[in-house]
């Protein structure tokens, strides 16, 4: 088997295992949403959101990108791995102490004394994440996606069980706090058993400075992204209180569920493959556009249906007292489409080591997003939602323009794929919503069934009328075939062993020209649940 065929097979198996596991995770998440929404109040969710919006800033720095550095390094000695472990663990401990120290200030800012205890318990998660970083990196480095998926799925199940038990016993918001801590603790136990590795002492002769230097750019862009993506929670929590913030948070979580739960596994598999193909432009473009097309269509279908039938979806998933989140979710879904359209751009930044360039873009777009959200707060919850959606929509063309300037990525095709998806599924969304508009109130299940049929009919019509969309559907249907490389373009002439994947350089040894920066290790995108 050639190296390219082996890489394609690994990608295919990794994608299959990860997506199947992610499907199970989505089922667990939906179960948790449905059950906990009926046991807890908006105020409970609002209290946790107040803390997570602030402590998330510290969470960004929990390993300073050192886990991703280990994943994509060409070589990694035992000494370097041990040094990275101690750096990650030490960073987690320092951040935990910092969060613990600021808990009184956070409680005073929101005028909510209960936040001191919540923040104190959540500080433990920084230590757990710091210890786990290099264990997870080892599994990903060895392409053991099955083990990674299994431990995350198991941790999520244990955490959910603990949350449901505490909530059923009247524990209130402590159920949500315990869920965060228990699922990480369970993962750590499994990692220690599976990896069977203990770090050695600090090795002074093993350099780690290049890994830390790279982390500065990565953490900088992620810090700005988190601040801009969570300023809405801070503004709502400080002006309107925990109850309205809980409603807004649940609407945002309904948006994040299809986005992050599909994007995260696709990114986990796509990035190692893209990083190894960056010196083979035809195959790089082929894999990039194939992954983009598959993800766009899979997520858009779910997002369009959920937005079109938001009232019925909210009634089934959350219950009647959460119905106000339906309108907020429909507004936020605009941001969802444009966030999804920009994922391929982010993959290019990551796989080609353009994190410094990505930071420069973030220094312009993220402060603008913050300013728009703060201004939108004058019009209440919907003002914040519309401001967030508008800011994300404006970031997409800016992202494409900047990527065209700093890389040789197929920006034109990325743009066409994204624009076509937004238009096709936007049309299907409108058709689905119109089909159920005249149904009598309370027709929840008829609305879901009718809306689904109308959505499928609208997409079938689009496939008949738009040839490019038909090609997209064929790409999705043949995704496994594509990943194996059988449908990919031939390697460039004169490449020697054309099928051999390009070696991934470590930050310490990369010396690439400005047109193609070195392959730096990266972590997953910042569009995470909050």
The radius of gyration over CA amounts to 23 Å
* Average of the residue pLDDT scores: 80
Uncertain stretches: 485-530
Largest sheet: none
Strands, count: 0
**Helix coverage percent:** over 70%
Our count of domains comes out at 2
Give the ordered list of helices and strands: HHHHHHHHHHHHHHHHHHHH
Class per helix and strand makeup: mainly alpha
Q: So how many helices?
A: 20
The rough form would be described as globular
Instruction: Report the sheet-strand fraction.
Output: under 5%
User: What's the end-to-end separation, in Å?
Assistant: 43 Å
Write up what this structure looks like.
With 530 residues, the chain is mainly alpha-helical. Helices cover 77% and strands 0% of the residues. It is globular. The protein starts with a helix and ends in a 47-residue tail after the last helix. The model is unreliable at 485-530 (pLDDT under 50).
What's the helix and strand layout?
Elements: H1 3-39, H2 42-60, H3 66-72, H4 78-110, H5 115-122, H6 124-141, H7 145-168, H8 174-195, H9 209-239, H10 242-277, H11 281-308, H12 310-317, H13 325-341, H14 343-351, H15 355-376, H16 380-406, H17 411-435, H18 444-465, H19 467-477, H20 479-483
